[in-house]
Design a protein that fits this description.
Layout lengths: L5 E4 L3 E5 L4 E2 L6 E4 L2 E14 L3 E7 L4 H11 L5 E5 L2 E7 L4 E4 L2 E4 L2 E8 L2 E5 L32 H10 L15 H5 L1
Parallel strand pairs: 2-11, 3-11, 4-12
Antiparallel strand pairs: 1-2, 4-5, 5-6, 7-12, 8-11, 9-10
Length: 187
């Protein structure tokens, strides 16, 4: 949630959620597609409030929606974020009145959720707050796990004998160091 005013919400009028009043409780929340509980995209593992509500998490590789949402995000689809956040305390702002919320001015008629509770986050094609974005950061998928078996000539008696006989110095353990980058791995 951007913390900004959502103009002309279909039900609430000019609308805003007071970020300070959001109860998060636990960091792990469902991440859904279009708020449909059967369309699981993944889950959050970190939720912060600092001028906006930001949720981070993991995509499911076990659900069609998790795979599809991630695939579309990788292609550049402009997902918006939304959240299911039932109100605990509502402030009605009448016509001609102004309410301050998250550093913005909401002009009535409208509504401010002064206290609320976050239940889930969603990836939406069109969220109520168009100032949001839902993105897939690639850092997790860029990591490559390799199993490396070190073959060391020092363990081979014949190789040891050859290097001693030729007068070549033995390679010290750990003296050969190379940084393995994604580019080098691709090569």
């Amino acid at each position: 949630n951007s913390g900004e005013i959502i103009p002309n919400h279909w039900f609430w009028g000019n609308f805003a959620i007071d970020l300070e009043g959001i109860q998060i409780r636990r960091q792990k929340k469902p991440a859904l597609r279009e708020h449909i509980s059967q369309r699981i995209v993944g889950y959050t593992d970190k939720i912060t409030k600092d001028g906006q509500l930001v949720a981070e998490g993991k995509f499911s590789q076990s659900t069609p929606d998790g795979v599809e949402v991630l695939g579309l995000a990788d292609e550049g689809f402009p997902w918006e974020a939304s959240m299911y956040i039932p109100p605990l305390k509502i402030e009605r702002v009448e016509e001609g009145q102004v309410a301050e919320v998250n550093g913005h001015k909401l002009k009535g008629p409208g509504t401010v959720f002064r206290k609320s509770r976050l239940r889930e986050v969603s990836f939406c094609a069109l969220g109520a707050d168009e100032n949001t974005k839902a993105v897939a950061l690639a850092e997790e998928r860029d990591l490559v796990t390799l199993e490396i078996e070190e073959i060391n000539a020092r363990n081979d008696e014949t190789a040891d004998a050859r290097s001693v006989a030729s007068g070549e110095p033995k390679e010290e353990e750990g003296s050969m160091e190379e940084i393995l980058t994604v580019e080098k791995l691709k090569e």
